[in-house]
Amino acid sequence: MSSTAATAVALIPAPRPSVDGDAVSVLPAMLYVPEASQWLTTSTGRIALDGYSWMQAVHWVAGSGLYEPRRHRSHGPRSFGPTTVRVAQELAQLFPCRPGIEYLVRRTGLSERSVEYHLGMLREAGLLVWIVKGTRVSGGPAQASEFARMIPVEFDVALGIRTVQRDADAPAYTRAVSGIAEAGRELMAKLAKKAARKVRKRRSRTSPKAQARGAERGFVTAVSDEVCCTPMQVGTSASLTAGATSFPPESKLASGDAKSPTPKKSKAKAGGRRKLNVVGRRFQLARELARELDWLHGCSVDRIAWVARKVADAGWTVTDVRGWLHLRGEAARVRRGSGLLAVLLAGAETVLDTPAKRADAIEQWRGAQEARRRHRIEQVRAEREWQDGAWESPANVALRREIEAVFAHVNNAARNHLQLPAADIPGQAAQTGADPFEISDEERTEMREQARAQLRLGTTDLIEDVIHALGQTAARHLFGEDLVRRAQQLTGFARSSLTTYETR
Questions:
Q1: pLDDT band at 216 (very low <50, low <70, confident <90, very high)
Q2: Which of 5, 129, 149, 379 is deepest in the core (most CB within 10 A)?
Q3: CA 408 to chain centre
Q4: How far is CA 472 from CA 127, 193, 394, 405, in A?
């Protein structure tokens, strides 16, 4: 046996009872890490490479008794027990180890203060150190704490584990295991079995007083050593504490079985669906309202069910609600759909308290829907006729004279500038002896830029005026084939009933 193993055997005293039920070897020393050494850079332990090896160290600390919380604090748990091991099991499954308090509360069922106590015990035992300590900044998000799972140096000394630092420049907590003494192999095997098991929360046993109260109320607790509640044969001599078992009379056993002659009626409907209860009808109406009403899209179905609970209990359908909303009046702008529905449905079940009144409201709502549909059809038809019809001069005499003067000025300018024959100009006869002159390139470029800018905005007024006044030949000569074609396409889209064209 080597000198190191002999030293380790000499340091291991007789085993003592542990919280896990097995005996583990411990060192005759106190295990406690002060707060200043609970950081990764100041820790004397080494990082656990995996959660399994770390749980071996956790079970060693739990069974050794070297760390007692009440030695170092006046409040909190009294011992490093199974609850602390359960918290450690949750930490062993995290990588990286960044547990939130709420997460551990949800996983373990402990209170927030208890989780903080056990995390502090793991740090004081040298099993957990801080890498980053979480902070809470006012007005900003909370930063989670990040821990490193550590194996204390006392664990290595107790089991005779040899470690080596492979990189001289690396920190001391990165040292790796290179061997173990023969005396520590048996203990390591026991710790491995414990680390493979899962420590679960113990179920609370029912007290004798609670069992007595349950027996008085008629509840029977099944126990493996007791007789069954239902006797297997008539001649049994077992007696039940819950009362004697009643048998059907012989007149009911003519068919040879003990079943009731009148079978129970099934609660299921003929279609295979069960009948909805009060809560089910509320949620059914809420889902239909959220689907039918546009201003309820995105609202919580639970809240809609609560708002419409009174009308749902009165037997209203979604059609009845639509009829009532027509009588009550709907808002054009809705900020909170469920709040508006609560205001509109206030007192509805007392006003339309009979099916006849609700049917009358539905008829009025449907009539309004039909009238609205017809009005929309007439409006679209009128707009289409106005767009497709010929242009009519205004009734105002002064305005008509101004428009005629503008048309005459445009016609004369086009005839003189473009040198077009009078036959190509609508409403104008051929004139001879005119003094034509060509339009300059700068003016033509300026007019094309204006027309192109209007096309970007979706308007074709300039090109349409020239086409109506001078004809397409003059418009193509002035603006070009591409601009005239784009203007005609935009005009066709604007007059079509299948598209909606707007300017921004």
A1: very low
A2: 149
A3: 69
A4: 90, 96, 25, 21
- Residue 251 in tokens: 């007149």
Please give the structure tokens belonging to residue 260.
């009731």
First to last CA, the chain: 93
Closest CA to 60 of 190, 183, 149: 190
Query: Cβ(345)–Cβ(324) under 8 Å?
Result: yes
The candidate with the shortest Cα–Cα distance to 97, out of 165, 50, 38, 153, is 50
- Alpha-carbon gap, residue 308 to 327, rounded angstroms: 17
Q: 291-295: long-range contacts at Cβ-Cβ below 8 A with a sequence spacing of 24 or more?
A: 292/318, 292/322, 293/325, 293/337, 293/341, 295/330, 295/331, 295/334, 295/337, 295/340
Listed in sequence order, the residues at least 6 apart from 52 whose beta carbon sits closer than 8 Å to its beta carbon are 92, 195, 196
pLDDT interval class at 303 (50, 70, 90): very high
pLDDT at 310: 92
pLDDT tens by residue, 447-490: 888 888 888 887 888 888 888 777 888 888 888 888 888 888 88
Residue 275 has phi, psi (to 5 degrees) of -70, 135
What is the C-alpha separation between 185 and 178, in angstroms, rounded? 14
pLDDT in tens, 22-35: 434 445 467 888 88
Other C-beta atoms lying within 10 Å of the C-beta of residue 192: 14
Question: What are the residues whose beta carbons fall under 8 Å from the beta carbon of 461, sequence distance 6 or more?
Answer: 454
Quick one: which H or E segment has residue 129? strand 128-132
- What's the predicted TM-score (pTM) here? 0.39
Evaluate if residue 246 carries a pLDDT over 70: no
Query: In what helix (H) or strand (E) does residue 378 lie, and over which residues does it extend?
Result: helix 355-388
Q: What DSSP element (H or E) covers 99?
A: none
What are the backbone dihedrals phi and psi of residue 90, each rounded to the nearest 5 degrees, phi first?
Answer: -65, -35
Local structure of residue 203 (DSSP, 8 states): P
pLDDT at 205 over 70: no
β-pairing, 46-47 vs 128-132, is unpaired
* Element spanning 292, H or E: helix 278-292
- Provide the mean pLDDT of the chain: 75
CA pair distance 494, 502, nearest whole angstrom = 9
